[in-house]
Amino acid sequence: MSVIQSKAIKMMQVGGPEVLQWVDIEVAAPGPDEVRVVHEAIGLNFIDVYFRKGVYPQPLPGWLGMEASGVIESVGSNVKHVKAGDRVAYAGKPAGAYSQVRVMPAEIVVKLPDAISFEMGAAMMLQGLTVNYLLTDSYKVQAGDTVLFHAAAGGVGLIAMQWLKLLGATVIGTVGSEEKAALAKSYGCDHTILYTKEDFVARTKELTNGKGVNVVYDSIGKDTFMQSLDCIKPRGMMVTYGNASGPVPPIDVGILGVKGSLKLTRPTVMTYAHDRSLLEPMSAELFDKVMSGKIKIEINQRYQLQDAAQAHRDLEDRKTTGSTIFLPR
Known about the structure:
Helix 10 (308-316) links the parallel strand 15 and strand 16 (323-327). The chain folds into two domains: 4-125 and 270-327, Quinone Oxidoreductase, Chain A, domain 1; 143-266, NAD(P)-binding Rossmann-like Domain (Rossmann fold). The protein contains ten helices and 16 strands. The strands form three sheets. Strands 3, 5, 6, 7, 8, 15 and 16 form a seven-stranded mixed β-sheet that branches. Strands 11-10-9-12-13-14 form a six-stranded parallel β-sheet, with helices on both faces. It is α/β, with parallel strands linked by helices and 329 residues long. InterPro entries: ADH-like_C, ADH-like_N, ER, GroES-like_sf, NAD(P)-bd_dom_sf, QOR-like, Quin_OxRdtase/zeta-crystal_CS.
């Protein structure tokens, strides 16, 4: 197996979107436990911004992208679960999905059903797996639960809105505009809170008759964490899973007791994506929900991969809704 010439996004230093460079690369043959994938579509996620800014450190020069779909071009000698020619999708480390072709660990790659397009596969893996573990493991949502979900009109949010309704929950979602409120409601959100104009704590208390919610799902981080604790009923759960506004500052865990014996967890999709005993059933469940039409994947933005810097600007400026993908060619 020979070296392949390809294009990719590379970053020599951390910083703003301008650090992203469109470069020529050589892609070697896969090692024994690796596969070489020709990408058809690539997902954009906020975790890519964290890596670009250095919030999540990585060696430099570095690569970006945690999610993509494509076709296996070749496999290493130890790889048995996929073969050359298979349609696949993945979400997980190491970063490097912002490329036309890449070599990567075979452990995080799953077969993509023929009924799911490459674009949809790239748009749903990281966000869909995230929703799966948030609602079934981080906190197991039950029928009758009331949930506060921040960024309800984002990629994770729109999948979560649908999944929560399947579980029989009442959903309160925060959004940044009237347009996003309408979108979230169209996907199942019962009550939207326009956080730019409303106090989401007061509104949540009003909507729950002062009781609070069973669980808060928060990917915003610093700007919403402490207030979110005030939205939770006694013995409820706080799930913080992202840092869009910056990392949550250190806290005195005693505050959880003061606010009602609250529980707190900080999960990450990598824990699940890199354990095949979890990844395979979670992926199968996600694929089944999409193929049955119970979960619709909203792809609202498409960019050429070489325009990754602009896509990052739009994501950080909250101009995007639903899922965003890159087209590598």
